[in-house]
Design brief:
By secondary structure, the chain is an alpha/beta fold. The chain has 3 domains: 13-33 and 258-424, 3-Layer(aba) Sandwich (Rossmann fold), CATH 3.40.50.300; 41-235, GTPase HflX, N-terminal domain (Rossmann fold); 430-480, no CATH class. Helices cover 46% and strands 16% of the residues. The chain contains 18 helices and 13 strands. The longest helix has 38 residues, at 219-256. Bound molecules: guanosine-5'-triphosphate and magnesium ion. The site of guanosine-5'-triphosphate has 23 residues, from helix 11. Magnesium ion is lined by residues 272-273, 292-293, 313.
């Protein structure tokens, strides 16, 4: 049993698996099929018909060679980074033919890998018949252009690759708008570079690029494109702000009705959606692919004590998430700021779980700073313990104090996790009448922040408060309970 034997109201029964996800959820399968059928469809609106050359380049990553510059860290870390780039490339739908790592103090200012290595790369491209080179970093527009000149196939960087995946995966209106905005922001300074190499390469590409090739990216064309992109970006920003308002209202309503909320965050592919499914029986898309989830999915569940809670599955994070994306997804990620609890899921079978934790924490801190919000309490959940190395797990148990160790697949630890959530989430609360000494002003502050105060009086001995507070806080307040004042 996974422990998720409470009925879930949001989904039909047949989706509810008791074996923790051995069966592929049907909703997920549908989404999966839909996704692959959409893979090669250019997603931008017709308004952008004139400038989709950039998009089309990004969507045609078919046979790729990866190249990385290894500037710091161990060889194992450099290899992990390349393996991740390969996974990203495959997620975007391409076949990885070859990967090269170059050891340098810093990326070459003009060609990223240096001209000697670039010539070597050209050889590899010719030998393998690759049509794209993907660099493991963010390249300047000039670097992209110079490297393209040498290798003579299109060159794409990690940022463009991630943006491409996001563009393929976004399903909600808000998600799509956010990705478009991020892509345009990325594109804007690169238009000239893309344009120049496009005109050189236009002959090699079929149909869809004909218009561009014929016209040529003259200075005027670029200027017009820029202006169009800018005004489209402004429009998108307005739309996104509007959608965010609607979501804020919904969230606020949830808050005022007192339904506690959990935001599930974590590195991409850590198993966030699997845990949501294991906890609630929801049929959220689970895929061994990066960024399977892009739109926050909220599911209701019934806690062990019969209360309701909502869990929100969020977009996964990755090292060096393009800044344009952090920016664009900020409003979505603000779900994080509004949650009562952050459930941070870590892949315990990953080679460097602590680095994943760090990368995720950086993005969260960034988002919260932007939202001007305090971090909600965090619960660390180490997933995939069925697949993890036992020695590594022992080490993790040592360093990750208070973490829960679970397997969404076998269901191990899931019941305990549910019990912990029940315990930890603010509930309708416990009635307390306490006299808190002035030395514990922190507790009074917490009562105000976490509970509902209905009486407060200052006396010589301290602050007398009558309030309804979450169970955990009630426990902390137990020593200050006023004699005989119980029961209300
Ligand atoms: N062995 C093992 N694999 C798991 C477990 N939980 C999830 N997985 C696998 O890990 C992969 C990613 O799972 P998801 O739940 O889609 O991960 P996610 O964090 O939602 O990923 P994104 O939405 O892509 O960021 C899938 O192939 C799952 O089957 C687990 O407990 N054990
Ligand atoms: Mg997911």
């Amino acid at each position: 049993m996974t422990g998720s034997d409470q009925p879930d109201r949001a989904v039909p029964d047949e989706v509810h698996t008791s074996d923790g996800g051995a069966q592929e959820p049907s909703l997920g399968e549908m989404q999966l099929a839909e996704r692959s059928s959409l893979r090669r469809v250019e997603g931008l609106s017709t308004e952008l018909a004139d400038i989709t050359e950039v998009e089309q380049r990004q969507l045609r990553l078919e046979r790729v060679v990866l190249v990385g510059v290894w500037t710091e860290g161990t060889a194992a870390q450099a290899e992990t980074s390349m393996a991740e780039l390969a996974a990203l490339a495959e997620t975007a739908g391409s076949t990885v033919l070859e990967a090269l790592i170059q050891r340098r103090d810093r990326p070459d200012a003009s060609t990223y890998i240096g001209s000697g290595k670039a010539a070597e790369l050209r050889e590899v491209v010719m030998a393998t018949g690759a049509d794209t080179v993907i660099c493991d970093g963010e390249l300047s527009p000039a670097q992209l252009t110079s490297l393209e000149k040498i290798v003579q196939v299109k060159v794409v960087d990690r940022t463009a690759l991630i943006l491409d995946i996001f563009a393929q995966h976004a399903t909600s209106r808000e998600g799509k708008a956010q990705v478009s905005l991020a892509q345009m922001e990325y594109m804007l300074p690169r238009l000239r570079g893309w344009g120049e190499s496009m005109s050189r390469q236009a002959g090699g590409r079929a149909g869809s690029n004909g218009g561009v090739g014929l016209r040529g990216p003259g200075e005027t064309k670029i200027e017009t494109d820029r202006r169009r992109i800018r005004s489209r970006m402004a429009k998108l920003r307005r739309e996104i702000a509007h959608m965010k308002n609607a979501r804020d209202v919904k969230r606020h309503r949830r808050h005022t009705t007192g339904v506690p909320s959990v935001a599930i965050v974590g590195y991409t592919n850590a198993g966030k959606s699997s845990i949501l499914n294991a906890l609630t029986g929801a049929g959220v898309l689970v895929q061994n692919a990066l960024f399977a989830t892009l739109d926050p999915t909220t599911r209701r569940t019934v806690l062990d004590d019969g209360r309701e809670a909502v869990l929100t599955d969020t977009v996964g994070f990755v090292r060096h998430l393009p800044t344009q994306l952090v920016e664009a997804f900020r409003s979505t990620l603000e779900e994080v700021a509004g949650a009562d609890l952050l459930m941070h899921v870590v892949d315990g079978s990953d080679e460097f779980p602590l680095e994943q934790i760090r990368a995720v924490n950086e993005v969260i801190a960034d988002v919260l700073r932007g939202a001007g919000a305090d971090a909600p309490p965090e619960l660390l959940v180490v997933n995939k313990i069925d697949a993890a190395d036992p020695v590594e797990l022992t080490r993790l148990r040592g360093v990750l104090d208070g973490a829960h160790f679970v397997s969404a697949h076998t269901g191990e630890g899931i019941a305990e996790l549910r019990a912990h959530l029940t315990e930890r989430l603010p509930g309708p609360g416990v009635r307390v009448d306490v006299l808190v000494p002035y030395s514990r002003g922190d507790l009074v502050a917490r009562i105000h922040a976490e509970g509902t105060v209905d009486s407060e009086r200052h006396s010589a001995e301290g602050t007398a408060v009558g309030a309804e507070v979450p169970r955990a806080l009630a426990a902390a307040l137990a020593p200050y309970t006023m004699g005989g004042a119980q029961g209300g």
